Amino acid sequence: MSNTLIAPDSPLLDSCDVLIAGSGIVGLAHAVAALDAGHRVVVVERDSRPVGASIRNFGHVCVTGQAGDLAELAAVSRERWLTMAARADVRVAESGGVAVARGADELAVLEELQDSRPDAVRLLTREQIRALLGGAGSDSIVGGAHLVADLRVDPRTAAGTIATWLAGQDGARVHFGTAYLGTDGTHAVTSRGRVRADRVVVCVGHDLDYLYPDLAEANDVRRCALQMALVEGPGATIAPAVLTATSLLRYDAFAQTSAAAALRARITAASPDLVGIDANVMFTQRPDGRLLIGDSHHTERTVDPFLEEDTTETIHREICRVLGVDRLTFRQRWQGVYASSGRAPYLAADFGDHLSVRSVTSGVGMTISFGLAQRTFPN
Length: 379
Ligand SMILES: Cc1cc2nc3c(=O)[nH]c(=O)nc-3n(C[C@H](O)[C@H](O)[C@H](O)COP(=O)(O)OP(=O)(O)OC[C@H]3O[C@@H](n4cnc5c(N)ncnc54)[C@H](O)[C@@H]3O)c2cc1C
Fold this sequence. Notes:
The protein is of the alpha+beta class. 35% of the residues lie in helices and 27% in strands. Strand 19 and strand 20 (355-360) form a beta hairpin. It is elongated. It starts with 11 loop residues before the first strand and ends with a helix. Flavin-adenine dinucleotide (FAD) is lined by residues 21-27, 44-47, 50, 52-54, 56-60, 62, 179-180, 203-205, 207, 211, 226, 228, 294-295, 336-338, 359-360, 363-367. Flavin-adenine dinucleotide is lined by residues 21-27, 44-47, 50, 52-54, 56-60, 62, 179-180, 203-205, 207, 211, 226, 228, 294-295, 336-338, 359-360, 363-367. Pfam families: DAO (PF01266).
């Protein structure tokens, strides 16, 4: 597949074995895997630093929640994140996740999963959950589970740290402020000149349609917009990523239990506000103690950039109910956007030996990207 925006006489910017377009977590994971497989790598990123979905998320490496193929990718990714912690000083916490249950139907989902995966899921009492929440947590909590394999990374710093580390490696270069425009089979064309590359791997997330609209349309890749906020913490150290009932309906390992049907019916009837914004109510703590809270989901080819105050308030209210507090003090609000497809959780398309496209299309890029990259560049 070629792109028509080619300027054959543009200057030569660089040369490499593998050119990666995009420095989000998908691109960076592929760059690391290509380097480890012995290739000379160039990353081009149109912005002056990573600012896409990869820095706007919860930083939850949600290993336990995945099933099937995604569980395999997540398991590989988990090991790679730990390796990157040692190699590149990326902040990775082996804190696990905690699923907080406030109803018997939520506990039933967790119990069923624990039966099939006893090593991955540890059922906890209310007091044990509160201990994991650093003493925080409302009286409505009836118990829950520790999801032991989950990791937490700091999303604000992880991608930038990996990019800086990559730029310092022999055999790797990173060009910020450089947009990938297309390839003619031997050279990639960028906004700063051509790059001689044997292989190009396009990892531009939800902006795939700007480059390859037919591919995006054929795979039903659209944009999913999510509302997030940063709030002051409750004064407790909350090490794990914290999931609630709506998360149990979103991630396959929970959602595929037979107990999930009753939970879904109850949430649909009792919490139309959460259903209406397609909520996954959860939070993680940043190193400064503040909480990343979210989120809602709205999928369209082109999404409105406007944040809905009612949506933020619905999420805020639900998180207050989990923490047992009246209000949380807001410090930031933002919209995150990721690639989404109803067809498949990720897109891996290869066009001959020269051009590949990789995009995580299910909102789990922090969880599976390193596994996906390992498949693209086995070593
Ligand atoms: C609010 C929110 C919460 C989430 N929470 C989680 C979570 O807790 N756990 C989890 O596993 N996943 C989570 N996700 C999903 C995860 O963040 C994404 O799946 C992942 O970040 C996608 O990575 P990416 O590299 O494809 O995209 P991005 O991070 O968006 O990176 C794409 C990059 O490509 C660049 N680019 C685009 N076009 C060009 C071009 N032509 N040339 C050069 N560069 C280009 C962009 O500037 C950008 O830097 C969340 C997502 C959001 C939005």
